[in-house]
Design goal:
The structure is a single chain. Helices cover 49% and strands 12% of the residues. It is of the alpha/beta class and 547 residues long. It has 2 domains: 3-307, Malate synthase, domain 3 (TIM Barrel), CATH 3.20.20; 428-545, Malate synthase, domain III (Malate Synthase G, Chain: A, Domain 4, Up-down Bundle), CATH 1.20.1220.12. Helix 6 runs parallel beside helix 7, helix 11 (288-298) runs parallel beside helix 17 (461-476) and helix 16 packs across helix 20 (517-529). It is globular.
Length: 547
């Protein structure tokens, strides 16, 4: 039976016996029939049946590990998987259209942005259901509709305010969908009365609707997997992929994924993650913003590892440099690409400032390319040429990547280097900036906007996490600012009140009052002064977003 016949049979079966275990609770989104059809829901139901119950167990494993680290242990390479690290093995391979990923643009699954991103001067577009998306039901469903139209090549958009029309250029970038992390649920779909894992919904819907078209175009169902913390979680995804490949009569390894290494626990299991997913994985990526957040979160009880101002934590700091170099060394040894990360700068409107922005982006991308990364991320089309120029220079000639760079000079990288405390000041200016960023970001998020420009930087869920957890950590460890002020809950509350006034002045009273700043400030205050560190900002945020 061909794959097409199989899908038809699978869809027909479920057309007649509508699913009893899966319930759609979200309100109607225009066009949802295209996405939430019986075949897609049948796949989702089967995946939930097979795999959803394991997710809480995986999250529980994270907690157990964290308890040991909270009690004083430091993360390290795992003794029980030494044979995998020492073994001689490679990943299955990289399809032709994923060999050259020198510049990838990222962005939420907004219709206009999808078109702009696919038309940008980049090799890949990472369409994001994660850090840059506030996953309201409408955005999730509309995002799937948009991606389906993009894969079909008939996505179009007319801006209501300008009348400008958008459609795809002839040779669009390769599409990779980033699904939600395992901690996030999709509460508008329930399986046996329980909200389902958000990432499983994103995966099933994108896969089901697009894999045939993508394969017909000599591309494939490609995914970014975020926020993994262990090789057990990688194994879970490997089982999901293998199950779906078998179900749809696809060659093993048809689904391809790139895993973000953006948690401190995962950096010690990169070989193991590649190994678990070796049939499907093609690359790892340095998700530096979540990684910095994870460094704070994982080492939250370790007074000697408290980070300084966010601006001081740059990729040339020893712990981040070691992370980038180890990722490259590990990937290239196994035949996988080593993707760099995001410089959070975005273009400025005035030319002089923009030149400074481009200079900073150039510096950041040069460091990555020189280290041996095979490609990098940009947040905005206006940065694509700059990043492309740097990577063209380093990759050179007919090459498509830097897989030949083995970084033997770095063997081995000890755990201590990955955990090295980061020097730098904690300043009142830095703390106030963290406050203004976090409160504005939370306000945007609970209104449904997961990625916003604030003070010339792209702010998303990962960058905002650094701002809010830095203050939490400074309070908990009774740190003093460079001007001698002790960081306390009261000092934070006082600064928050003052900075809310500054934000109101910056934005104007009309915008401020029409917004949700009071709600955002309440949530921010609550999670910053709580003695328990809230795991992810987006968990209480999701309750407000979907209230
Ligand atoms: C830590 C991480 O996870 S990083 C990955 C997640 N983060 C992201 O993906 C960031 C994506 N970037 C963005 O969302 C945006 O660039 C923002 C919010 C930072 C800034 O957006 P804006 O203020 O709209 O930028 P600006 O006004 O300069 O945009 C100019 C044009 O570029 C487009 N544009 C900007 N960023 C992008 C993008 N990432 N993809 C596609 N198009 C984009 C805008 O849609 C706009 O198009 P138009 O001229 O046709 O109207
Ligand atoms: O997802 C990317 C990051 O930096 O976080
Ligand atoms: Mg991230």
């Amino acid at each position: 039976m061909t794959a097409d016949q199989l899908v038809a049979k699978y869809s027909a079966q479920t057309e007649t016996q509508s699913s009893s275990k899966l319930a759609i609770l979200g309100s109607h989104v225009e066009g949802q029939e295209k996405i939430l059809n019986s075949g897609a829901l049948a796949l989702l139901e089967t995946l939930c049946e097979q795999f959803a119950a394991e997710v809480p167990q995986l999250l529980e494993k994270r907690c157990h590990k964290q308890q040991r680290i909270d009690a004083g242990e430091l993360p390290d390479y795992l003794p029980e998987t030494r044979a995998i690290r020492d073994g001689n093995w490679s990943i299955r391979g990289i399809p032709a259209d994923l060999q050259d990923r020198r510049v990838e643009i990222t962005g939420p699954v907004d219709r206009k942005m999808i078109i702009n991103a696919l038309n940008a001067n980049v090799k890949v577009f990472m369409a994001d259901f994660e850090d840059s998306l506030a996953p309201s039901w409408e955005k999730v469903v509309q995002g799937q509709i948009n991606l389906h139209d993009a894969v079909n090549g008939d996505i179009e958009f007319t801006a209501p305010n300008t009348g400008k029309h958008y459609s795809l250029n002839p040779d669009p970038a390769v599409l990779i969908a980033r699904v939600r992390g395992l901690h996030l649920k999709e509460k508008h779909i329930e399986f046996e009365g329980e909200a389902i894992p958000g990432g499983l919904a994103d995966f099933a819907l994108y896969f089901y609707h697009n894999y045939r078209q993508l394969l017909a175009k000599n591309s494939g169902p490609y995914f970014y997997i975020p926020k993994l913390e262990s090789h057990h979680e990688a194994r879970w995804w490997a089982k999901v992929f293998a199950f779906v490949e078998e179900r749809f009569c696809l060659q093993p390894g048809t689904i391809k994924c790139t895993c973000l290494i953006e948690t401190l626990p995962a950096v010690f299991e990169m070989d193991e993650i590649l190994y678990e997913l070796r049939s499907n994985i093609v690359a790892l990526n340095c998700g530096r913003w979540d990684y910095i957040f994870s460094y704070i979160k994982t080492l939250k009880n370790h007074p000697d590892r408290v980070l300084p101002d966010r601006q001081a934590v740059t990729m040339d700091k020893p712990f981040l440099s070691a992370y980038s170099r180890l990722l490259i060394k590990t990937c290239h040894k196994r035949g996988a690409l080593a993707m760099g990360g995001m410089a959070a700068f975005i273009p400025a409107k005035d030319e002089a400032t923009n030149q400074q922005v481009l200079q900073k982006v150039r510096g950041d991308k040069e460091l990555e390319a020189r280290n041996g990364h095979d490609g990098t991320w940009v947040a905005h089309p206006g940065l694509a040429d700059t990043a492309m120029g740097i990577f063209n220079d380093y990759i050179g000639g007919d090459n498509t990547n830097q897989l030949h760079i083995t970084r033997d000079v770095d063997a081995p990288i000890p755990a201590a280097e990955l955990l090295e405390p980061c020097d730098g000041e904690r300043t009142e200016t830095g703390m106030r900036l963290n406050i203004r960023i976090a409160v504005q970001y939370i306000e945007a998020w609970i209104q449904g906007n997961g990625c916003v420009p604030i003070y010339g930087l792209m702010e998303d869920a990962a960058t905002a996490e650094i701002s809010r957890t830095s203050i939490w950590q400074w309070i908990q460890h009774e740190k003093s600012l460079s001007n001698g002020k002790l960081v306390t809950k009261d000092l934070f509350r006082q600064m928050l009140a003052e900075e809310l006034k500054n934000v109101e002045q910056e934005l104007g009273t009309e915008r401020y009052q029409a917004g949700k700043f009071t709600q955002a400030a309440q949530l921010f205050e609550q999670i910053t002064t709580s003695d328990e560190l809230v795991d992810f900002l987006t968990l209480p945020g999701y309750e407000l977003l979907t209230a």
